[in-house]
Design brief:
Strand content: 15-25%
InterPro entries: Hypoxan-DNA_Glyclase, Uracil-DNA_glycosylase-like, Uracil-DNA_glycosylase-like_sf
Order of helices and strands: HEEHHHEEEHEHEH
Keywords: Glycosidase, Hydrolase
CATH superfamily: Uracil-DNA glycosylase-like domain
CATH topology: Uracil-DNA Glycosylase, subunit E
Structural class: alpha/beta
EC number: 3.2.2.15
Number of domains: 1
GO molecular function, one term: DNA-deoxyinosine glycosylase activity
Domain Uracil-DNA glycosylase-like: 19-170
């Protein structure tokens, strides 16, 4: 049986990261997710699920207006010297469930680190932190700070609590 047929029968989908990292030469902070959700892949941009609190949290931490469009989100990140990327380049996954991820191929962070001023790395959630530690930390030499996920699946943390904890990126 082919890999594609096995994946289909098991509800797994093989996903290759559909869009590039977002960073500039003056990026100082890198925030890593694990892999874009189904909604983010549909929108072709980071944190696209309307219930994900990433953009509300980040705007509050930075004292800025909540960005609505992809262009506004990019401007917010560039203005604040923040790069975004994910720890996984490709994997097999069921929907958007981090707990279902298998057959991981990690992203290559070298280009971002070589072409920017990134000094600090933050992982958005435990899955991202675990994959970073497993595949990328020894290559980058930068220890990441793992912060609570902004995903709607992380109901244990209110938006207010996320904002308070994520202030450490400043």
């Amino acid at each position: 049986m082919s890999r594609e047929k096995r994946l289909k029968e098991s509800n797994y989908t093989h996903v290759i990261h559909p869009f590039p990292a977002l960073y500039g030469a003056d990026s100082k902070i890198l925030i890593l997710g694990s892999l874009p959700s189904v909604k983010s892949r549909e929108q072709n941009f980071f944190y696209g699920h309307p219930q994900n609190r990433f953009w509300k949290m980040l705007a509050a931490v930075l004292g800025e207006k909540i960005p609505e469009t992809i262009e506004e989100k990019k401007e917010l990140l560039h203005r604040n010297h923040i790069a975004l990327w994910d720890t996984i380049y490709s994997c097999d996954i069921i929907g958007s469930s981090d707990s279902s991820i298998k057959n991981v191929v990690p992203t290559d962070l070298n280009r971002i680190l070589e072409e920017s001023e990134v000094e600090r790395i933050f992982c958005n959630g435990k899955a991202s932190g675990n994959y970073y530690k497993k595949y990328q930390e020894s290559r980058t030499g930068i220890e990441a700070t793992v912060l609570p996920s902004t995903s709607p699946a992380n109901a244990a943390f209110s938006l207010e609590k996320l904002i308070e904890i994520w202030k450490c990126i400043l």
